[in-house]
Prior knowledge:
Blueprint: H1 2-24, H2 36-49, H3 51-57, H4 63-74, E1 84-88, E2 94-98, E3 113-116, E4 128-134, E5 137-145, E6 154-162
Antiparallel strand pairs: 1-2, 3-4, 4-5, 5-6
Amino acid sequence: xxxxxxxxxxxxxxxxxxxxxxxxxxxxxxxxxxxxxxxxxxxxxxxxxxxxxxxxxxxxxxxxxxxxxxxxxxxxxxxxxxxxxxxxxxxxxxxxxxxxxxxxxxxxxxxxxxxxxxxxxxxxxxxxxxxxxxxxxxxxxxxxxxxxxxxxxxxxxxxxxxxxxxxxxxxxxxxxx
Length: 177
């Protein structure tokens, strides 16, 4: 009986050491790297999950309107893309107000250009595509409407393409059907 107790005590001691080591070492996450592309992806995800940003951008956009509002939020350079509307001011005259305006903190996203996927056979129809070329690589981000989740109404897909590779087709591997 004493021998059995000693075996269990050793087993429990070994498990407690292993458990403590697992708590001391942060979990391995390949996406917490420090590349500019990873930072841009995280920044875009932050924008699309921040309630204040989502209210300004709108939760029900697709294609070109979505691209315009994302870039408008990222930089004052894109202010012409910001959506707005007319309101009646206190004096009874119409005034133009912006629903969405540039917000500091997203400046690194201003380097992207926005286009739209218009092909019905594409796996992500009506997606906003943000692209940025740097050296021989292109960072491509697809943002798609996802009405199933009101708290996260957009899906984000990203890839980095090597433009020197002759097999690069201008699309991410997950876009090919």
